Amino acid sequence: MSLITRFQRSPVEPATPDEPRAGSRWRRVAAPATTVLAGLFVLVALVAPADFERFTPGAFLRVPVEGLLGVVLVLVLPPRPRRIAAVVGGAGLGLLLVVKVMDIGFDAVLYRPFDLVLDWPLLGPAVDYVDVTVGRVASIGAVVAVVALVIGLVVLTTRSVLRLTRVVVGHRTASIRAVALLAVASITLAVPGVPISSGGAAEFVYDHARAVKAGLNDREEFAKEAAVDAFRDTPGAELLTGLRGKDVVLTFVESYGRDALENPEIAPKVTAALDAGSAELRAAGYASRSGFLTSPTAGGGSWLAQATLLSGLWIDNQQRYRTLVASDRLSLPSAFGRADWRSVGIMPGITQAWPEGDYFGYDQIRAGGDLGYRGPRFGYATMPDQYTLSAFQQRERSTPGHAPVMAAIPLLSSHAPWSPIPEAVDWDEVGDGSTYNSMVSGTDPPEAIFGRDPSSVRADYAKSVEYSVKTLISYVETYGDDDLVLVFLGDHQPAQVVTGADAGKDVPITIVAKDPAVLDRVAGWGWDDGLKPGEKAPVWRMDEFRDRFLTAFGSTTLKTSASPEH
């Protein structure tokens, strides 16, 4: 026997016999651990709530009825149908989990669950938002990450269900006993108000199925609503006669919601600014009236709210928006244009083609690139509110004897993430915006608000709204005259990281004018005096405003409802 042979057989290196034993021990530990993890994952997919407010330990201490039925099905099916059922059920459970994640995201931002029919078009604006605020690379990365997450969840749930299926079949007697025990326990141990069993997954699917049916019928419902328009054929000579010769400025203050006036962590700054502004404007000869409107959206979707107010139709989803902008429905800007105003849209947030803007009937749209801004962005805002109003003033109202102008102006400084906020400067120093280059403009991505202390986020939100309303008050004091009528309102409430749950969708609205005849026209509205509506101020749906406004300031009265009862 050679030396090499003797060395290979020497007991000094017994590695080869030991390695299989070590691998076997690892497999014996890993297999049950993997099964437990698969079971926990499936349990979470079945019982996890679809909103953060219900994420409590008790929510997961449930016996999912769907899981018990799934075990029974696995036990009675023959091998091939069993595997098919496991694959289909696992994939379906993965998709259910994906929809739950979407619901959580929509609830956190928009106060409602994801609509499987109507909300897909909103994903485009979401990507555009990331693109604008963080950059193209980040938006592409976000899309890739979302696609990977969806595929990963579906694959993981499918593999988990397949693994559990094999375990159930391999331990048939134990599985039957476990199902029986859990079924009996869920009935006998149940306490009123403290359920043991859960049919949450089935209920979740049922709720979304009902929403899908409603979404499929929404186009027909919207067509019925849009067909009724009391002002469709009203001649220009009979429109807006109570505002002849006035410059009417309609401004949407981003995320200016009712919480800005009533949430104790936010309201002190904002209400102080409004109270001081009311006193200052009153001293300068102005009067104001304020109420509330209920927005069709919350947390986001500003264009839906703006379209609702300007069209007099309830635009709460992208399908309705697209249908509206392809229609000939009379909008407020079109009504002013028909009555011989110059109507303009000052749109600092529009940074690319906006073909749907043609619907609103503006004589001219001045997008972000048309306003000549040479300063930095502040968070999402392409330019500070003060610059937007200054640019509007210089381009539309600075020429003596100019024709009456009606302007719709969305203001962006109070858009999430609400930090940083530009400083106010003298109006003569605004110029082309270069003065803002010396201010801190910030680099945090918008989603950073969800990782910050909520109290800090609310403080920043309050500061941003305070800045916006002070800027509007200052604009009136600086450039106002007998012929200026200012209407300003919020488009929607901020995200729930600011308001908390169940905040509602009301937003403040205010009319400011120096000519007493203007506010006399709206005396019957019952709105509160001043820039701040009180707790008991009237609340209308936002789609009611167009007809009430055209009625109050027209030479004819509204004889028929412009929108059906809801």
From TrEMBL:
SUPFAM superfamilies named in the record: Alkaline phosphatase-like
Keyword Zinc: no
Annotated stretches, region: Disordered: 1-23
Transmembrane segments: 29-47, 59-77, 84-106, 137-162, 174-194
Keywords linked to the UniProt accession: Membrane, Transmembrane, Transmembrane helix
Source taxon at top rank: Bacteria
InterPro entries registered for this protein in UniProt: Alkaline_phosphatase_core_sf
Protein name per the record: Sulfatase
Species annotation: Umezawaea endophytica
